[in-house]
Amino acid sequence: MTRNQVTQAVDRVTDSDWFERAARAGYVVTGLLHLLIAYIIAQLAFGDSGNADQSGALAVFAKEPGGRVALWIAVVAFVALALWRLAEAIVGGKANEQRSDDDGLSGWFDRGKALSLCVVYFAFAWSAATFALGSGKSSGRQNAGMSARLMEHTGGRVALVVVGLVIIAVGGYFVYKGVTRNFLDDLRTGGGKLVTTTGVIGYAAKGLVLAGAGILVIVAAVRSDPSKAAGVDAAVKTLAGLPAGQILLILAALGLAAYGIYCFVMARWSRM
């Protein structure tokens, strides 16, 4: 099958209204998860316990009446959004918009970003499925366990440092996208004050949390302390030990809640 035939096949699939709606539902679920993570962080600020990451939010879903049904709906939504991102990676642009055949650096960057998001949403779907099946585990503990195994070898520690640098870069990109308001380019609407404010705060907060998680991965590799490489949960809980830790946790909760709200904006007005 030629490249043109593949592109035409992708165009036919993404012309489906139900496929687009299912993919947009992925943003809704992402928003709900971030609001739950923000709620858990707020609880941590006032002395409660919990896992301030995706697994903690999914666990909250699983415990509620009808929670497993909701989780299976989340799996479908995440898979749809992952497949939509895969379509964008194949065609090299927004699936439902007129595209220019850009094979330059910018075009390949867009393809790489879409493919990376495809992997992320498939990972979200897998996590949601494990909790729906009753076998979900703390992602922080899994990350720490994997890091401990990698630390048994020099090459593993180097790999962890590289992973940490990549996470920091991703976090930096989120902050950049927020403060420059580039996220507005992803919308079909110009955005109002509320949309812009939630986007700026949300992207910046998520970026800072990711960057903090990346820094801790590097610290874990250097100090041979796998507990530091527990992802977002470790980054958030590190804030609690800092001066004015409670205030920092509340700010982190508000920031991630803003990102969750912005995900709902994406569900409605995202360019697809």
From TrEMBL:
- Coiled coil location: none
What residues form the membrane-spanning segments? 25-46, 66-84, 114-134, 154-176, 197-222, 242-265
Can you tell which superkingdom this protein's organism belongs to? Bacteria
Q: Which UniProt keywords apply?
A: Membrane, Transmembrane, Transmembrane helix
Residues of the DUF1206 domain: 25-91, 117-181, 201-269
Q: Name one Pfam family in it.
A: DUF1206
What is this protein identified as?
Answer: DUF1206 domain-containing protein
Q: Which organism is it from?
A: Gordonia hankookensis
